[in-house]
Each structure stands twice: as structure tokens, then as C-alpha cells.
Amino acid sequence: xxxxxxxxxxxxxxxxxxxxxxxxxxxxxxxxxxxxxxxxxxxxxxxxxxxxxxxxxxxxxxxxxxxxxxxxxxxxxxxxxxxxxxxxxxxxxxxxxxxxxxxxxxxxxxxxxxxxxxxxxxxxxxxxxxxxxxxxxxxxxxxxxxxxxxxxxxxxxxxxxxxxxxxxxxxxxxxxxxxxxxxxxxxxxxxxxxxxxxxxxxxxxxxxxxxxxxxxxxxxxxxxxxxxxxxxx
Length: 233
Prior knowledge:
alpha+beta, ten-stranded mixed beta sheet, 8 helices
């Protein structure tokens, strides 16, 4: 544990037995290590709760760095293909998020959205080259059974439909019947983004495509994403 926090064993032992209070820097490391919000870490006696109960508390949310435009509107960060696995270590790092490319969609403004790359078998039925857009879900209790989500876990990105929410896990399934249902423990689920749309040069599906105003915006979006991909690659 001391090695993970980049401190000596003796120093960590003093924090454990209560003889010394950890400074803010160490509290931040503990918060990220245990995936417990700073508010809970410093205000709640953690010994009174089981981990799965803490994860269900409404105030337990991991830091979500975001980027905004000049008038304060949320931008859609785009996680790049070539560095997608870096998101697993940088998702809570404001500096990492700050360096991501962004795009904006006028019809996706109520909530926080992010675009993730589909690669290999991570997000069937989407093919390589597709960006899947998700809306951020703040807490596990907000996840809806039957809806599809981009799930960020300790092992990578998943695109799954929620089959069931259990006491300590969620059961997910793929729309492709080739893949079996399986459970994800709450502690392994880092982020959840409810599916809001997708983009690829061959396929585009974002809400009401029959609307003429939306069509014109999507044309601009196609050009914007193409320019974005050129920059990333």
C-alpha cells in the first residue's frame, strides 16, 4: 500500500494508527486508490460501511474533469484511438483531460458527454473507426436496466446492455448473442456513460436524423470529426 502511495511504510503506518494526519496530497492519492470521494474520505467513518454500500452513497463520486468553451458550455472530449488505454490511468487527471481533442453538438447539451473509440471486440456491434458517444452517469443507482452503456472498467472499455443490478455487481449482456452474460463488481466499474449516439464515416446515428436542422449539423460534424481524426493520427 505504501509503495502504491509512493511513501515509506513507516509513514503509512502512522496514518493507519491515527498518530499522524495525512496531508492533502496523500488524501488525494488515497481517494483515487480506493475510488472513494474526498468528501466521504474526510467526513465519514469508513469503518462503519462496507465498500459496496459506500459506492451506492449519492455523494460518492469520482472527480470528473471536464472541458468547457468560452461561454461555459460543456465540450465533448474525444478519447483518441492510439492512446485509448491511457484513459484508464488519466480519466481522473485534469491535465490528461485538458489535452484531449474536443467537439460540440448543439443537440447534446443537457448533461456531460464524451466520445470513446470502438476497437476490436470492445464495443460490438460498432466497428473499428467508430466513436461511441455517452452521457455521464454520476452514480450506480442512476444506471437503468435495459439501457446500453459505455462502461469503463479496470480492464478497458465495454459497450453493454444492463441486464440486472445486483447487491454488489451489475449483470451485463451484449446485443450480440455470441457473447455470454456476466457480472461486473461495483469496485471494478470506474465510470458509466449512457449511450447517446455514434459516429463513423460509414454510419452516423445521433437521435433524430430526419430533422433538416440536425442533418445540417451532422454534415458539419462529419467534417469536424474528420479533421479531428487527422490531427490524432
